[in-house]
Specification:
The chain has 255 residues and is mainly alpha-helical. The protein has a single domain (9-253), classed as Phosphate transport system protein phou homolog 2, domain 2 (Methane Monooxygenase Hydroxylase, Chain G, domain 1, Up-down Bundle), CATH 1.20.58.220. Helices cover 72% and strands 4% of the residues. The protein contains 8 helices and 2 strands, in the order E-E-H-H-H-H-H-H-H-H. It has helices at residues 24-46, 55-80, 86-109, 118-142, 148-162, 170-174, 183-235, 242-253, and strands at 9-13, 18-22. A two-stranded antiparallel ribbon has the order 1-2. It is globular, with a radius of gyration of 23 Å. The protein starts with 8 loop residues before the first strand and ends with a helix. The model is unreliable at 1-18, 167-181 and 184-196 (pLDDT under 50).
Length: 255
């Protein structure tokens, strides 16, 4: 069982006094790293390379629950200090919703792609890339680098990348109007067609689930982009050292 590290406390200057806040960067970084690992694992499950009930996935599920409880408690304590942490809460919740849907996708569709599906593989690669971009962006922002905006744009772009794929519908499997045969042949064809339509319908549902994951990651990316822009504004025309940049980056989360 993995232990969850408690984030260090950061002293932030509030209204007339310093207040003790959790290190939100450490919190979000741990959550983002978990989502990166989860996206890679789900990609392997959908390709049939790993079981949907593997110890690895169970470990990630437990970690997600622990991080969710701890992060929401930390954000709640900041709310009690009247600190503006709305965007931190939205980020924590968006990453958690993406993780929850990844788990449901792995367990709900792992038997669907026995023969593989190239579109799903490409969509999962886009999702994995988005999670990696977010994690890299949070790390850059924590170090006071406004270059995190490029990572945010990459995460936001994953939403459009997934929507390039055409929607599948029942007409795609029917293959047009078939020639009529004997009653027995017609009954067999109807059974095959019903199976095909059901399979395509499940694929369509899977595509929708992957698009919803991309939506959550894009939402987190939009917040990361706002944080990066605030940091750039703070550092504009300043010759700031690393400690000043890191302090400014923490302030931009709770502005």
């Amino acid at each position: 069982m993995r232990t969850i590290q408690i984030p260090a406390v950061v002293r932030v200057r509030g209204r007339g006094a310093a207040v003790e806040l959790p290190d939100f960067f450490a919190m979000i970084d741990q959550q983002a790293r978990m989502v990166v690992s989860l996206a890679r694992t789900v990609g392997e499950i959908l390709q049939g390379k790993e079981s949907a009930y593997s110890v690895r996935l169970l470990d990630l599920e437990q970690r997600r629950e622990e991080l969710r409880r701890r992060n929401l408690a930390a954000v709640g304590s900041a709310f009690a200090l009247t600190c503006s942490v709305d965007e931190i809460l939205w980020t924590v919740e968006a990453l958690d919703r993406a993780a929850a849907r990844l788990f449901r996708t792995a367990r709900g569709f792992h038997q669907l792609l026995a023969g593989g599906d190239e579109a799903v593989c490409q969509m999962m690669r886009a999702i994995q890339s988005a999670t990696e971009s977010l994690q890299r962006g949070y790390s850059r922002l924590a170090n006071g680098s406004p270059a995190a905006e490029a990572d945010a744009d990459a995460a936001i772009g994953s939403k459009d990348a997934l929507r390039r794929y055409p929607a599948w519908g029942p007409g795609a499997a029917a293959g047009g109007e078939a020639a009529r045969g004997t009653p027995a042949e017609d009954q067999h064809c109807a059974h095959v067609e019903q199976f095909s339509l059901g399979h395509v319908g499940r694929l369509y549902e899977l595509y929708g689930s992957l698009n919803q994951i991309a939506d959550e990651l894009a939402g987190a990316g939009a917040i990361l982009k706002r944080w990066s822009k605030r940091l750039s504004a703070e550092l504009h025309d300043l010759s700031a050292g690393s400690s000043v940049r890191q302090s400014a980056s923490r302030q931009c989360l709770t502005t």
